[in-house]
Amino acid sequence: MEEPPEEPSQSQESWRDHHTWITTQDILREKLITEDSFSWKLSSKGASQGETGYKKGEELRYVGGVDISFSKDDPSKACGTLVVLDFHTLQLLYQDFSFFTLQVPYVPGFLAFREAPVLQQLLEKMKRSDNPFYPQLLMVDGNGILHPRGFGLACHIGVEANLPTIGIGKNLHHVDGLTHSTVRKLLGAEENSSKDFINLVGCSGRIWGVAMRSTQGSIKPIFISIGHMISLQTAITIVQKTCKFRVPEPIRQADIRSRDYIRKLGMNGKVT
DNA sequence: GCGACAG
DNA sequence: ATCTTGTCGC
């Protein structure tokens, strides 16, 4: 018998790890809830600002956003960030950071095993301390069910934290025949020219999410998919209401502040 | 077989 | 993800 040639640089990530990861995703996916499942509600148009008799906590108010940014010097150094914004005013209510060293490589389809642990820790820390701003909904920088096995980062965090989540992708993850050109064709189609979002229908007929022109006149869409305990329709509504720019504010703020945190640590190479 | 592939 | 300043335009 021949010895399988060793790949020194690959010794950390064998196909075995992927198999374990797939099993984990398959198991967690059984707990996924793909419809609205929360106690709050979206305030009805016009009655949102004033106190109209709703009990506190019944309306959506605390929207979280998570992101991770990396040091350009040392790609294994990163900063996980959690922010919470007021759904109506989009003002920052809470922010927390966690600087850490990455142990797991990025492998397409397995982003959660690299990024979910830190983000979950940030959520857990907030919950343990009974912070009144603990998010009622979390927006995640990465996909939900728009994923090879229908279980992206947003689903992963949602299930493990038992929290409603929405996945926001800035690039399309090719799944079920969906490609860059597919989307371009759909967005450019005559009958869709006036719509601000289109369903991402794969070859199988399944709807994986939507591509949305979040800002008027923006060419490059964002990709919205459900994470956990929320319907696509509700997810779309919430994203639209939180978009001042292309990327919804909770994600955008987490991104900006995360970068800023790393920069202020002097991890950007500039020593001037 | 080759290429594609969230962050 | 990260590499990158100014610049053209609403």
What does this structure look like?
- It is found in: Cytoplasm.
- This is Endonuclease V.
- The protein has 272 residues and is α+β, with helices and mostly antiparallel strands.
- The chain has a single domain (26-39, 60-264), classed as archaeoglobus fulgidus dsm 4304 fold, CATH 3.30.2170.10.
- Helices cover 28% and strands 21% of the residues.
- It is built from 6 helices and 8 strands; from the N terminus they run αβββαβαβαβββαα.
- It has helices at residues 15-29, 112-128, 153-161, 180-188, 232-241, 249-264, and strands at residues 62-70, 77-86, 92-101, 137-141, 165-169, 197-201, 207-212, 222-228.
- The protein has an 8-stranded mixed sheet with strand order 3-2-1-4-5-8-7-6, sandwiched between helices.
- β4, α3 (153-161) and β5 (165-169) form a beta-alpha-beta unit.
- α2 packs parallel to α3 (153-161).
- It starts with 14 loop residues before the first helix and ends in an 8-residue tail after the last helix.
- Mean pLDDT is 88; it is low at 1-11 and 46-51.
- It binds 2 DNA strands through β1.
Count up the helices: 6
Please state roughly what percent of the residues sit in beta strands, choosing from under 5%, 5-15%, 15-25%, 25-35%, 35-45% or over 45%. 15-25%
- Which structural class do the helices and strands define? alpha+beta
Question: Which percent range fits the helix content?
Answer: 25-40%
Uncertain runs are 1-11, 46-51
Q: How many runs of DSSP E, i.e. beta strands?
A: 8
Tell me the CATH topology: archaeoglobus fulgidus dsm 4304 fold
Mean pLDDT reading: 88
Tell me the name of the CATH homologous superfamily: archaeoglobus fulgidus dsm 4304 superfamily
Give the end-to-end Cα distance, rounded to a whole number of Å: 58 Å
How does CATH name the architecture? 2-Layer Sandwich
- Rg for CA atoms: 20 Å
Largest sheet: 8 strands, mixed
How would you spell out the order of helices and strands? HEEEHEHEHEEEHH
Overall tally of structural domains: 1
For this structure, what is the CATH class? Alpha Beta
Choose one word for the global shape.
globular
Biggest sheet strand line-up = 3-2-1-4-5-8-7-6
